[in-house]
Amino acid sequence: MSSNPPNLRPDLARAQVTQTARPGQPTIGMVSLGCPKALVDSERILTRLRAEGYGISPDYAGADAVIVNTCGFLDSAKAESLEAIGEALKENGKVLVTGCLGAEPEYITGVHPKVLAVTGPHQYEQVLDAVHAAVPPDPHPFMNLMPASGVKLTPRHYSYLKISEGCNHKCKFCIIPDMRGRLASRPAHAVLREAEKLVENGVKELLVISQDTSAYGVDRKHDSHPWKGREVRSHITDLARELGQFGAWVRLHYVYPYPHVRDLIPLMADGLVLPYLDIPFQHAHPDTLKRMARPAAAARTLDEIAAWRAICPELTLRSTFIVGYPGETEAEFETLLDWLDEAQLDRVGCFQYENVDGARSNDLPDHVPDEVKQERWERFMEKSQAISEAKLAAKVGQRMEVIVDLVEDDAATCRTRADAPEIDGNLFIDEDHAALSPGDIVTVEVDEASEYDLWGRLVR
Predict the structure, then answer these.
(1) Which is nearest to 132 in space by CA: 253, 243, 13, 28?
(2) How sure is the predictor about 205, in pLDDT bands with cuts at 50, 70 and 90?
(3) Does 312 show up as a binding residue in the annotation?
(4) Fold of 6-134
(5) Residue 267 and residue 34: Cα distance in Å, rounded?
(6) Domain ranges of the chain
(7) What is the mean pLDDT of the chain?
(8) CB distance 163 to 189 below 8 Å
(9) Cα separation, 203 vs 155, whole angstroms
(10) Domain spanning 399-458: CATH 3.50.50.60
C-alpha cells in the first residue's frame, strides 16, 4: 500500500489548500497517507475545519497542530504511518492521529506516547473534538468563506467521489472490514449532489471509489431516492448512468467482477462512463483464491472479460495481484502467468504477500520464503511489462483525447482515458504545449510508446 504522492501531501509540498491566514487564526496541518479513500476522509476533515474558522497550513512550521491520517493495511504501511507521526512530532510537536491505524490506539501510543489523541477511520466528529481540545476554534463569519466544493487535496480538475464505506467480504489477507466496518452505502441523491457541485466548480474527472464499488447499495436494498424529478436507485449501474449525465469523465475503481458488472459495459460503449474497469482479481488459481476466501472462478472471469471486450473493444482493464500467498506452489503461480497471458490486462500491479496483524492468512500453513516471493514478483512483472509494452506500441498512430495534469517548460503531462491519476501511465506532449492548462481535454496523435507511457503531438 503506497502513500498519497508527495504533491498531494501538504507536509511535503504547497498543495491546493494554501491560504493566507488572518491574524490570530488557528491553523491545522494535514499529512494524508494511504489510499484515495483516506484522501477523501482528509478532505472532509479539512472542509469541516475550514468551515469552523481554522486555517489550513501547507507546512509544519505554520500549523498550530498537525493531523496524521494513517494507513494500517500492511505492516509496511503501519511502519510508514509511525514514521510520519514521529516526523510530525519532531517538526511540530502537537499531533493528532486518525485513520485506519487509529483502530489500534495502543499500538500508536506505545511507540509515540506524546500524541494528543487517536481516533479511528472516518470518525469525523471525534477528530473535530480532538482538534477543538488541542487548538480552540476562532470562527469569523465574514472572513471564513468556504468554496462549494470544500477543501480539495487533489488538483482542481479531478476529484475522488466516495460512494460507500466498509466491505462485506472476508478475504483472509485483509483486515479492512475490521477497521472500517461492513458496507455502508451513501444514498444515491447525496452522491449525485456532491458530483454535481464538483463539476460545477470545474472538476473534469470523477474517480468513483469505495472498498467494493460493485456492491454499492446492497446494504440499502437498492432503495430509490428522488433526483431531478425522477427516482434513482442506489445501484452502481443506475448511479453510473446518472453520473454520466454531468459531462465529466467518470472512472470506476475497485469493481468486483459480479455478474451485474456486464450491465456497466454498454454505458462505456455509449460514452457515458470511461471504458475503464479497476478490478482486484488478486490471483487466478482456484486453490489460491479459495485459501484467500475469494470467489474461485478464474475461467469464467476470462469468459466475462471476452464478453466485455466484445461489447466495448476500447475497454481498459486494470488489476492488482498478490504473489507468494501462503501455500502458493510453483504450479499455482504458473497458472497465474498463463491466465495473465490469456487475459491481456492493460494495467497491472503486483504485491508480494505480507502478514498483517489480525489477518487470518497469518495462520495458514506453508508460507512462501521471501526469496521465492521476490523471484515470482520479478517474473510476474516481466510478463505484465511485456504485455503493456505491446499494447501501448499498438497505440502509435492513433488519435485520442487526453486530459492535461501538469504543464512545465519541457512538456505537458497528460493522461488518456485509459489512465487513472498516480497509478497508471502518462502521455507527454513536448512540443507546442505552452498554451495548455491543467484540466484541458485535447486531442493528440500518439507518435511514441514505452513500456508504460506514451508521447504525442497536439492535433489542431
Answers:
(1) 28
(2) very high
(3) no
(4) Rossmann fold (3.40.50)
(5) 30
(6) 6-134, 158-393, 399-458
(7) 89
(8) no
(9) 9
(10) no
pTM of structure: 0.81
350 assigned ligand-binding residue:
no
Chain position carrying cell 460514452: 271
Find the mean pLDDT for residues 259-283: 95
Q: What is the mean pLDDT of residues 373-397?
A: 97
* Residue 67: C-alpha distances to residues 112, 371, 428 (Å): 14, 38, 35
Tell whether residue 167 is among the known ligand binding residues.
yes
Give the separation between CA 193 and CA 55, rounded to whole angstroms. 26
CATH fold match for the domains 6-134 and 399-458? no
The residue count of the chain comes to 460
**100 is known to lie in a ligand binding site:** yes
* Dihedral Cα 318, 322, 323, 325, nearest 10 deg: -160
Mean pLDDT of 121-138: 86
Contact criterion met (CB below 8 Å) for 399 and 457 = no
Burial category of 433 from C-beta neighbours within 10 Å (exposed 0-12, middle 13-18, buried 19 and up)? buried
Q: How many CB atoms lie within 10 A of CB 26?
A: 22
Q: What is the DSSP letter of 366?
A: -
Tell me: pLDDT of 443 over 60.
yes
Chain centroid to CA 87: 24
pLDDT score of 321 more than 50 = yes
35 is in an annotated binding site: yes
Q: Where are the alpha helices (DSSP H) in 94-227?
A: 105-111, 124-134, 176-180, 188-200
Task: Say which CATH superfamily domain 158-393 falls into.
Answer: tm_1862 like domain (3.80.30.20)
DSSP SS3 for 277: strand
174 is in an annotated binding site: yes
In a 3-state reduction of DSSP, which class is residue 377?
Answer: helix
| pLDDT bracket for residue 85 (50, 70, 90) | very high
